[in-house]
Amino acid sequence: MSDGSGEGRRSARAFTPDFLTELFRNPLDPGYADAAAQRAKTGRPARPGWSVGPVGLAVIVLLGFLCAVAYRQTMAEEPGRAQARSGLVAQIKQRQDETDVLSARADELRAEVNRQREAALGGSQAARLRDLEASTGLGRVRGDGVVVRLADAPKGQDVISGANVGPPQVLYLDLQAVANDLWSVGAEAIAINGQRLTATSTIRNAGEAILVDFRPVTGPYEVSAIGPGSMRERFDTSNSALTMRKVAQNTGISFDVRDADDLTLPAAPEPRLRYAEPAVSPSLSPSAEVEPSGSGTSPSPSGGG
């Protein structure tokens, strides 16, 4: 009994090979074995395939239908978009032409007003008026001076990714600093890319654009100034010149200062001045009482002790 039971227990135990033993025993994947068996049976190689059920087929048909509808809709709307785009381009061109005509007409009227005014005024008064217009920026001026040129750095590549990166750009603060230092060293008239600066001029940015008196200017930027002969030497030692030279050395921004003879700076547009006016009659609070004019006392709030 004992020998039989021992044999039964030994026969019931099965040997389980480890992974390496099984790998060496059956090196091929069962799928390859099945493919080899099918190839031997049919005489041609078996191709792995995939089956599509009814749901998958319906999804494929639906996607194809949606793509076809989207394509037809896009092609149908393309003529309308092209027509709208061409219409906007034509309107912009028309407005630019109208603006150019109006600007030329404004220059003609301004010149005619100046002629009529000089004819009506005496010689000394007309000369004084021209001097005042030149000093305030409302008259065209000519003379010797300097030109400060600033330009954005050329485009470069990122050292790590190699992608194109935006170049260091001239900021509106740079133009402000240059203009202020030119005024401080004796400039009598300044213009930025042909835009004359006056006492009410502004230099600011809107997005990536720089505006001078709300008119956009693009690089390279030329700040032209008319002034005394020592202006160039004094500007070279100013804070803005020293800062911009250091910035140009570190970032690649272009900064150059040169003497210029016989500069002509245009007149600035007529300013639109605003004045503060007092109210017609000061309003009193409902709780205030005014004493009679002969009492010699000041108004006092009602209910005061």
TrEMBL record:
<feature type="transmembrane region" description="Helical">
    <location>
        <begin position="50"/>
        <end position="71"/>
    </location>
</feature>
<feature type="region of interest" description="Disordered">
    <location>
        <begin position="268"/>
        <end position="305"/>
    </location>
</feature>
<keyword id="KW-0472">Membrane</keyword>
<keyword id="KW-1133">Transmembrane helix</keyword>
<keyword id="KW-0175">Coiled coil</keyword>
<keyword id="KW-0812">Transmembrane</keyword>
<feature type="compositionally biased region" description="Low complexity">
    <location>
        <begin position="292"/>
        <end position="305"/>
    </location>
</feature>
<dbReference type="InterPro" id="IPR010273">
    <property type="entry name" value="DUF881"/>
</dbReference>
<dbReference type="GO" id="GO:0005886">
    <property type="term" value="C:plasma membrane"/>
</dbReference>
<dbReference type="Pfam" id="PF05949">
    <property type="entry name" value="DUF881"/>
</dbReference>
<feature type="coiled-coil region">
    <location>
        <begin position="92"/>
        <end position="119"/>
    </location>
</feature>
<protein>
    <submittedName>
        <fullName>Uncharacterized conserved protein YlxW, UPF0749 family</fullName>
    </submittedName>
</protein>
<comment type="similarity">
    <text>Belongs to the UPF0749 family.</text>
</comment>
